[in-house]
Write a structure and sequence with these properties.
Oligomer: single chain
Radius of gyration: 19 Å
Shape: globular
Number of helices: 7
Distance between the termini: 55 Å
Number of strands: 2
Strand content: under 5%
Largest sheet: 2 strands, antiparallel
Length: about 170
Amino acid sequence: MKKLLIFAFLAVHERFVRLFMPRVSTHKLLLLPGIESFRWTLGRWRAWRTFELAARRVPAYRQFLEKQDFPGRLPGNGRVSDEFARIPEMDKDSYIRPWTTEDRCLGGKLPRRGVVVDESSGSSGVPTSWVRGPDEREATRQLLQLGFARTAAALDKQPFVLNAFSLGAWAPA
């Protein structure tokens, strides 16, 4: 019952935020000082819901948990952070390499639209592909926009942004 109430609250909260998401002022409200514990609680609840969604709907993750003899749900009886500590850790050898990219997606299928596939540099020996769906890309865009809006507000001139993130330069020759 507790889980259902929490997940229902998250659904309502996220619809409300999504309604006002294009406005930077909405994000500023959510980042006001004094509500950090509320944000941390929301984050733990979202992680809990995401874990259970992935355990149900991502074929590779469901199989990974079965191999670890771990149920695809958290009991929700104790502190969520304590329960998270029991979830088996993943790495490239135990999770990424044994399953296809599709098996690591919701429903075992690549999203039909708005997908970007990033590829790592291969510094571990073999490049790895990471699928970024439209929801993840939109959330990242909004976080970057918020950070940028805070910085740009203090500037006198129009800034020029250069994304200089690079892993490829560190790949072995």
